[in-house]
Amino acid sequence: MFITMKKKYKYINYKDNIADVISQYPETVEVFLAFGLHCVGCFANAFDTIESGCVVHGMGKKESEELLDEVNYVVEQRLPDSKNVAV
Fold first, then answer.
1. Partners of 81 in the β-ladder
2. Is residue 81 predicted with pLDDT exceeding 90?
3. Cα separation of 56 and 59, whole Å?
4. Do 70 and 31 form a contact (C-beta atoms < 8 A)?
5. pLDDT tens, residue by residue, 57-71
6. What gap in Å lies between CA 76 and CA 53, rounded to an integer?
7. 3-class DSSP state for residue 41?
């Protein structure tokens, strides 16, 4: 998987819709694919949250948390100044 540093901020959470996340942050597609969530190209992503996608694909809690951390890392890298975002 990807190598990341510990994140201070969470931009994306389990309740976020997959289609909304990849629409706003297309660079997150690689993370979803790397974790086996190929729903990024499926019509169901318009209805599924990250949480439901993880469950449907049989991901455990640890792997789901790693996916969310990776997605947030990618989003954080895109933002110009993440220091102003509160947790």
1. none
2. no
3. 8
4. yes
5. 999 999 999 999 999
6. 22
7. helix
